[in-house]
Amino acid sequence: MTLHGNLLGPEPTLLPVDPAAAELDRGVAPEEVAAAHPTSSLAWAVLAERALENALTITAYAYARTGYHRGLDQLRRSGWKGFGPVPWSHEPNRGFLRALATLQRAAALIGETDEAERCLAFLADSDPAAPAALGLG
């Protein structure tokens, strides 16, 4: 028996470093980064955020949904069982959380209320600090 684990739930899921992050930080266009790293939630989240900033709601929704699903794949590969913490404080988790937050915003804008509410609940369940950190709280 270990004494360092959370006795009330699963350990937090911590995604590995996303190689796309360094390219985005260097100013490589997110379209190029997503094409080079199609499994990167972060690249899709950046595309989604930019589309939403430009009032391209359906495009943002599609990009965000892609980033969300790529993130679910990454979470599962990292041991996530469909529930449990995905902390915002762990930088590599932020691509997934940003995609989820942008999916929430885009869903709300197109009147997909149930989806928007599910996304917000999932975000808060992943990390109670995430909605506020992403401007949703």
UniProtKB/TrEMBL annotation:
Superkingdom in the source lineage: Bacteria
> What's the short name of a Pfam family annotated to this entry?
DUF3151
Under which name does UniProt file this protein? DUF3151 domain-containing protein
In its UniProt entry, the species of origin is given as Pseudonocardia alaniniphila
